[in-house]
TrEMBL record:
It is a multi-pass membrane protein. The chain crosses the membrane at residues 28-50, 142-166, 178-200. Pfam families: MotA_ExbB. This is Chemotaxis protein MotA. Residues 99-215 form the MotA/TolQ/ExbB proton channel domain. One of its GO terms (cellular component) is plasma membrane. One of its GO terms (biological process) is chemotaxis. InterPro entries: MotA-like, MotA_ExbB_proton_chnl.
Protein backbone atom coordinates (compact mmCIF):
# COMPACT_ATOMS: atom_id res chain seq x y z
CA UNK A 1 0.00 0.00 0.00
CA UNK A 2 1.20 3.50 -0.84
CA UNK A 3 1.20 5.24 2.54
CA UNK A 4 1.85 8.70 1.07
CA UNK A 5 -1.29 8.64 -1.09
CA UNK A 6 -3.48 7.30 1.71
CA UNK A 7 -2.01 9.60 4.36
CA UNK A 8 -2.22 12.68 2.15
CA UNK A 9 -5.86 12.02 1.29
CA UNK A 10 -6.82 11.43 4.92
CA UNK A 11 -4.99 14.51 6.18
CA UNK A 12 -6.47 16.72 3.46
CA UNK A 13 -10.07 15.75 4.17
CA UNK A 14 -9.50 15.69 7.94
CA UNK A 15 -8.22 19.27 7.94
CA UNK A 16 -11.17 20.51 5.87
CA UNK A 17 -13.71 18.68 8.02
CA UNK A 18 -11.93 19.80 11.19
CA UNK A 19 -12.05 23.43 10.07
CA UNK A 20 -15.79 23.08 9.36
CA UNK A 21 -16.49 21.54 12.76
CA UNK A 22 -14.50 24.22 14.54
CA UNK A 23 -16.54 26.90 12.85
CA UNK A 24 -20.03 25.45 13.16
CA UNK A 25 -22.35 22.58 12.33
CA UNK A 26 -21.27 19.98 9.75
CA UNK A 27 -24.86 19.65 8.55
CA UNK A 28 -24.66 23.19 7.15
CA UNK A 29 -22.27 21.90 4.48
CA UNK A 30 -24.45 19.01 3.35
CA UNK A 31 -26.77 19.95 0.52
CA UNK A 32 -28.29 17.20 -1.62
CA UNK A 33 -29.29 19.39 -4.61
CA UNK A 34 -25.79 20.87 -4.71
CA UNK A 35 -24.18 17.40 -4.66
CA UNK A 36 -26.51 16.25 -7.43
CA UNK A 37 -25.50 19.19 -9.62
CA UNK A 38 -21.73 18.92 -9.07
CA UNK A 39 -21.15 15.16 -8.74
CA UNK A 40 -23.83 14.13 -11.25
CA UNK A 41 -22.93 16.83 -13.75
CA UNK A 42 -19.19 16.17 -13.51
CA UNK A 43 -19.45 12.45 -14.14
CA UNK A 44 -22.06 12.90 -16.85
CA UNK A 45 -19.72 15.29 -18.64
CA UNK A 46 -16.73 12.97 -18.32
CA UNK A 47 -18.73 10.09 -19.78
CA UNK A 48 -19.60 12.28 -22.77
CA UNK A 49 -15.96 13.34 -23.18
CA UNK A 50 -14.37 9.87 -22.97
CA UNK A 51 -15.45 6.31 -23.78
CA UNK A 52 -16.86 4.58 -20.71
CA UNK A 53 -14.03 2.05 -20.64
CA UNK A 54 -11.44 4.83 -20.44
CA UNK A 55 -13.33 6.38 -17.52
CA UNK A 56 -13.51 3.04 -15.72
CA UNK A 57 -9.81 2.33 -16.38
CA UNK A 58 -8.89 5.76 -14.99
CA UNK A 59 -10.79 5.13 -11.78
CA UNK A 60 -9.28 1.66 -11.41
CA UNK A 61 -5.88 3.28 -11.88
CA UNK A 62 -6.73 5.76 -9.13
CA UNK A 63 -7.61 2.90 -6.78
CA UNK A 64 -4.31 1.20 -7.59
CA UNK A 65 -2.49 4.30 -6.32
CA UNK A 66 -3.61 3.31 -2.84
CA UNK A 67 -3.01 -0.42 -3.20
CA UNK A 68 0.24 -0.51 -5.16
CA UNK A 69 3.37 0.51 -3.30
CA UNK A 70 5.91 2.60 -5.16
CA UNK A 71 8.65 0.39 -6.56
CA UNK A 72 12.31 1.15 -5.97
CA UNK A 73 14.95 1.51 -8.64
CA UNK A 74 17.27 -0.53 -6.43
CA UNK A 75 14.85 -3.48 -6.49
CA UNK A 76 14.69 -3.53 -10.31
CA UNK A 77 18.48 -3.28 -10.54
CA UNK A 78 18.94 -6.18 -8.11
CA UNK A 79 16.42 -8.30 -10.02
CA UNK A 80 18.35 -7.82 -13.26
CA UNK A 81 21.61 -8.66 -11.47
CA UNK A 82 20.09 -11.89 -10.14
CA UNK A 83 18.92 -12.73 -13.66
CA UNK A 84 22.48 -12.15 -14.86
CA UNK A 85 23.76 -14.51 -12.16
CA UNK A 86 21.30 -17.22 -13.24
CA UNK A 87 22.22 -16.81 -16.90
CA UNK A 88 25.93 -16.99 -16.10
CA UNK A 89 25.54 -20.04 -13.87
CA UNK A 90 22.92 -22.02 -15.81
CA UNK A 91 23.01 -20.50 -19.29
CA UNK A 92 20.69 -18.15 -21.12
CA UNK A 93 18.12 -20.88 -21.80
CA UNK A 94 17.45 -21.14 -18.03
CA UNK A 95 15.80 -17.71 -18.11
CA UNK A 96 12.76 -19.26 -19.82
CA UNK A 97 11.82 -20.78 -16.45
CA UNK A 98 11.93 -17.55 -14.43
CA UNK A 99 8.61 -16.87 -12.72
CA UNK A 100 7.55 -13.24 -12.30
CA UNK A 101 4.30 -11.28 -12.12
CA UNK A 102 5.81 -8.54 -14.28
CA UNK A 103 4.88 -9.36 -17.90
CA UNK A 104 7.52 -6.98 -19.29
CA UNK A 105 10.27 -8.61 -17.26
CA UNK A 106 9.02 -12.04 -18.35
CA UNK A 107 9.12 -10.94 -22.00
CA UNK A 108 12.65 -9.59 -21.53
CA UNK A 109 13.79 -12.90 -20.02
CA UNK A 110 12.28 -14.78 -22.95
CA UNK A 111 14.09 -12.55 -25.45
CA UNK A 112 17.37 -13.06 -23.59
CA UNK A 113 16.81 -16.83 -23.52
CA UNK A 114 16.24 -16.75 -27.28
CA UNK A 115 19.52 -14.83 -27.65
CA UNK A 116 17.62 -12.10 -29.47
CA UNK A 117 19.40 -9.21 -31.11
CA UNK A 118 19.79 -6.25 -28.68
CA UNK A 119 18.06 -4.02 -31.22
CA UNK A 120 15.02 -6.33 -31.17
CA UNK A 121 14.94 -6.12 -27.38
CA UNK A 122 15.19 -2.35 -27.59
CA UNK A 123 12.41 -2.11 -30.17
CA UNK A 124 10.16 -4.42 -28.14
CA UNK A 125 10.62 -2.53 -24.90
CA UNK A 126 10.26 0.85 -26.62
CA UNK A 127 6.89 -0.33 -27.92
CA UNK A 128 5.97 -1.40 -24.39
CA UNK A 129 7.02 1.98 -23.00
CA UNK A 130 5.04 3.83 -25.67
CA UNK A 131 1.94 1.71 -25.05
CA UNK A 132 2.19 2.20 -21.30
CA UNK A 133 2.58 5.97 -21.64
CA UNK A 134 -0.38 6.25 -24.01
CA UNK A 135 -2.55 4.21 -21.65
CA UNK A 136 -1.55 6.25 -18.63
CA UNK A 137 -1.87 9.55 -20.48
CA UNK A 138 -5.56 8.84 -21.11
CA UNK A 139 -6.17 8.21 -17.40
CA UNK A 140 -4.26 11.38 -16.49
CA UNK A 141 -6.29 13.37 -19.00
CA UNK A 142 -9.53 11.96 -17.54
CA UNK A 143 -8.64 13.35 -14.12
CA UNK A 144 -7.48 16.67 -15.55
CA UNK A 145 -10.86 17.00 -17.26
CA UNK A 146 -12.66 16.02 -14.05
CA UNK A 147 -10.71 18.75 -12.25
CA UNK A 148 -12.05 21.24 -14.78
CA UNK A 149 -15.62 19.97 -14.82
CA UNK A 150 -15.98 19.99 -11.01
CA UNK A 151 -15.57 23.76 -10.46
CA UNK A 152 -17.47 24.46 -13.70
CA UNK A 153 -20.54 22.60 -12.45
CA UNK A 154 -20.02 24.29 -9.11
CA UNK A 155 -20.49 27.60 -10.89
CA UNK A 156 -23.56 26.23 -12.67
CA UNK A 157 -24.96 25.30 -9.28
CA UNK A 158 -24.19 28.79 -8.05
CA UNK A 159 -26.15 30.30 -10.93
CA UNK A 160 -29.08 27.96 -10.27
CA UNK A 161 -29.07 28.92 -6.61
CA UNK A 162 -28.99 32.63 -7.43
CA UNK A 163 -31.88 32.29 -9.87
CA UNK A 164 -33.92 30.45 -7.24
CA UNK A 165 -33.05 33.02 -4.63
CA UNK A 166 -33.91 36.02 -6.79
CA UNK A 167 -37.20 34.45 -7.86
CA UNK A 168 -38.33 34.15 -4.23
CA UNK A 169 -37.28 37.43 -2.70
CA UNK A 170 -40.81 37.90 -1.37
CA UNK A 171 -40.39 34.73 0.74
CA UNK A 172 -37.51 35.26 3.21
CA UNK A 173 -37.72 31.67 4.47
CA UNK A 174 -36.72 30.29 1.06
CA UNK A 175 -33.66 32.48 0.64
CA UNK A 176 -31.48 30.37 2.94
CA UNK A 177 -31.74 27.04 1.06
CA UNK A 178 -31.32 28.77 -2.28
CA UNK A 179 -28.22 30.61 -1.07
CA UNK A 180 -26.85 27.33 0.32
CA UNK A 181 -27.07 25.73 -3.11
CA UNK A 182 -25.44 28.80 -4.66
CA UNK A 183 -22.45 28.74 -2.31
CA UNK A 184 -22.01 25.04 -1.56
CA UNK A 185 -21.88 23.89 -5.18
CA UNK A 186 -18.78 26.01 -5.75
CA UNK A 187 -17.33 24.59 -2.54
CA UNK A 188 -18.00 21.01 -3.63
CA UNK A 189 -16.48 21.53 -7.08
CA UNK A 190 -13.35 23.15 -5.66
CA UNK A 191 -12.85 20.40 -3.08
CA UNK A 192 -13.28 17.67 -5.68
CA UNK A 193 -10.80 19.30 -8.05
CA UNK A 194 -8.07 20.13 -5.52
CA UNK A 195 -8.29 17.24 -3.07
CA UNK A 196 -9.14 14.39 -5.44
CA UNK A 197 -8.78 14.91 -9.18
CA UNK A 198 -5.62 17.04 -9.53
CA UNK A 199 -3.65 15.10 -6.87
CA UNK A 200 -4.56 11.80 -8.53
CA UNK A 201 -3.52 13.13 -11.94
CA UNK A 202 -0.21 14.27 -10.50
CA UNK A 203 0.46 10.93 -8.79
CA UNK A 204 -0.41 9.04 -11.97
CA UNK A 205 2.05 11.19 -13.93
CA UNK A 206 4.77 10.46 -11.37
CA UNK A 207 4.00 6.72 -11.51
CA UNK A 208 4.23 6.81 -15.30
CA UNK A 209 7.73 8.31 -15.14
CA UNK A 210 8.69 5.71 -12.55
CA UNK A 211 7.45 2.80 -14.65
CA UNK A 212 9.22 4.18 -17.72
CA UNK A 213 12.47 4.27 -15.75
CA UNK A 214 11.97 0.68 -14.61
CA UNK A 215 11.42 -0.47 -18.19
CA UNK A 216 14.60 1.31 -19.26
CA UNK A 217 16.51 -0.51 -16.52
CA UNK A 218 15.10 -3.83 -17.72
CA UNK A 219 16.16 -3.04 -21.29
CA UNK A 220 19.68 -2.00 -20.32
CA UNK A 221 19.98 -5.04 -18.07
CA UNK A 222 18.86 -7.41 -20.81
CA UNK A 223 21.26 -5.79 -23.26
CA UNK A 224 24.16 -6.05 -20.80
CA UNK A 225 23.43 -9.72 -20.09
CA UNK A 226 23.57 -10.51 -23.80
CA UNK A 227 26.75 -8.48 -24.29
CA UNK A 228 28.93 -9.76 -21.44
CA UNK A 229 26.84 -11.92 -19.05
CA UNK A 230 28.91 -10.68 -16.08
CA UNK A 231 26.71 -9.89 -13.05
CA UNK A 232 29.17 -7.39 -11.61
CA UNK A 233 29.46 -5.48 -14.86
CA UNK A 234 25.67 -5.56 -15.22
CA UNK A 235 25.35 -4.07 -11.76
CA UNK A 236 27.97 -1.39 -12.42
CA UNK A 237 26.07 -0.28 -15.49
CA UNK A 238 22.58 -0.39 -13.98
CA UNK A 239 23.61 1.30 -10.73
CA UNK A 240 23.91 4.50 -12.76
CA UNK A 241 20.11 4.67 -12.63
CA UNK A 242 20.19 4.86 -8.83
CA UNK A 243 20.73 8.02 -6.79
CA UNK A 244 24.42 8.23 -5.82
CA UNK A 245 23.69 7.98 -2.09
CA UNK A 246 21.94 4.62 -2.59
CA UNK A 247 24.51 2.91 -4.80
CA UNK A 248 26.82 1.75 -2.02
CA UNK A 249 24.09 -0.17 -0.25
CA UNK A 250 22.53 -1.70 -3.36
CA UNK A 251 24.78 -4.75 -3.22
Amino acid sequence: MDIATLLGSIIGFALVIGAILLGGDMSLFINLPGLMIVVGGTFAAICVTFPLQDVLDAHMGALSLFMKKKGKVEDVVNIMVRIAEISRREGLIALENIQTENPILKKACQLIADNADPQLIRDTLMIEIGTMKRRHSISIEVFHKLAGFGPAFGMIGTLIGLVQMLSKLEDPASLGPAMAVAILTTFYGTIMANLIFLPFAGKMKARTSQEELHLQIIFEGAKSILENNNPRLVYEKLSSFEPPKERKSAR
